[in-house]
Structures are given as structure tokens and as C-alpha cells.
């Protein structure tokens, strides 16, 4: 199975290239990326488990990635100044944001915490799979931009980190 970082890199490479469609299959896992009018359609069907999935028709799950959003003029002064010089950790997929591994546990990170490149900062649940999101940068968490249990979109900002 591809790791989240590898999928992110694939998305970026496809976005920066002139190709319109990419398909990859390994060990029963399939990844299909298509460009559609400035956005990308990402399809990542999981291995089917015969006992659970047998009664359901076989149809790929697709998630349309929105094109980069334009912020309103009112919001720009607020969002631009805190982001200057900061690294933004974004959601690699559509799903539900969880700040801790379980409801009883403490959050992975809090505002002011130090993180390293491989620190797990949250979980995004997509299609009943818990995907750990790593910081990808060493620094200090400046802001947490989403609430626990909130639905997040592909590319949505989750955290602001001041790099060291």
C-alpha cells in the first residue's frame, strides 16, 4: 500500500505535469488520478474483504479534489499575516480530523508544542481507515486550524508550524 507521503508526491507530480490521467495498481490496491478542469479526481479503492464486501456492488470510491480556493478580501489580512514564514500542514485527503488516537487520550500535539519531521500530529479518518498525518517539518506549532471531529477537505490547512 502506498504511504500518504507517496500519494501526496504523486498528486503534486501529476499536478505539475502535462499528463491528464495516472493509474497505479499493486497488491490489490489501486490508485487512479485524473485532472478535471483545474482539479483532480482521486480514486483509492481498498482491497475487498470477501465476507464484508461481497454483498456490495463493486464501484470505486471517488473524491473530487477542489481547485485552489480564492479567499475573500475580508479574510486575507487575517490569514496572510500569521502564515508568513510558517509551514502549513494540510490534509492529504477528505475525511474526519481527530486530534488524538482515541477519545480518552491526550491530543497528539497542542499549540506551542515542538514537532519533528516524523511526528504524528493528527489522524484523518477516510473510508474507515485511520491515516496518521506527520508534521513533515521541524518546528513549533503556532496554531491548530480545525476542531476535533471536524470534516476536512483535501488540501485544507490543519496546522501552522514555525520552522526551526
Automatic annotation (TrEMBL):
GO cellular component: acetyl-CoA carboxylase complex
Every Lipoyl-binding domain range: 86-162
A family per Pfam: Biotin_lipoyl
Ranges annotated as biased composition (Low complexity): 45-74
The organism's place on the tree of life at top rank: Bacteria
Record's keyword terms, sorted: Biotin, Fatty acid biosynthesis, Fatty acid metabolism, Lipid biosynthesis, Lipid metabolism
Protein's GO biological process: fatty acid biosynthetic process
Coiled-coil stretches noted in the UniProt entry, renumbered to this chain: none
PROSITE patterns xref list: BIOTINYL_LIPOYL
Residue numbers spanned by region Disordered: 33-112
Biased composition (Polar residues): 34-44, 88-103
Metabolic or biological pathway, per its Swiss-Prot or TrEMBL entry: Lipid metabolism; fatty acid biosynthesis
NCBIfam families to which the protein is assigned, alphabetical: BCCP
Protein name according to UniProt: Biotin carboxyl carrier protein of acetyl-CoA carboxylase
Amino acid at each position: 500500500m502506498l504511504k500518504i507521503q507517496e500519494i501526496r508526491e504523486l498528486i503534486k507530480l501529476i499536478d505539475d505535469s502535462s499528463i491528464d490521467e495516472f493509474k497505479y495498481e499493486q497488491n490489490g490496491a489501486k490508485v487512479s488520478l485524473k485532472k478535471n478542469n483545474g482539479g483532480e479526481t482521486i480514486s483509492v479503492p481498498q482491497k475487498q474483504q470477501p465476507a464484508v464486501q461481497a454483498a456490495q456492488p463493486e464501484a470505486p470510491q471517488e473524491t473530487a479534489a477542489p481547485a485552489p480556493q480564492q479567499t475573500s478580501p475580508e479574510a486575507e489580512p487575517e490569514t496572510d499575516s500569521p502564515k508568513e514564514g510558517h509551514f502549513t500542514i494540510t490534509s492529504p485527503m477528505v475525511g474526519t480530523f481527530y486530534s488524538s488516537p482515541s477519545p480518552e487520550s491526550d491530543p497528539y500535539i497542542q499549540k506551542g508544542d515542538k514537532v519533528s519531521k516524523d511526528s504524528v500530529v493528527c489522524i484523518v479518518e477516510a473510508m474507515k481507515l485511520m491515516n496518521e498525518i506527520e508534521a513533515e517539518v521541524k518546528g513549533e506549532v503556532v496554531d491548530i486550524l480545525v476542531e476535533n471531529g471536524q470534516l476536512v477537505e483535501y488540501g485544507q490547512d490543519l496546522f501552522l508550524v514555525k520552522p526551526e
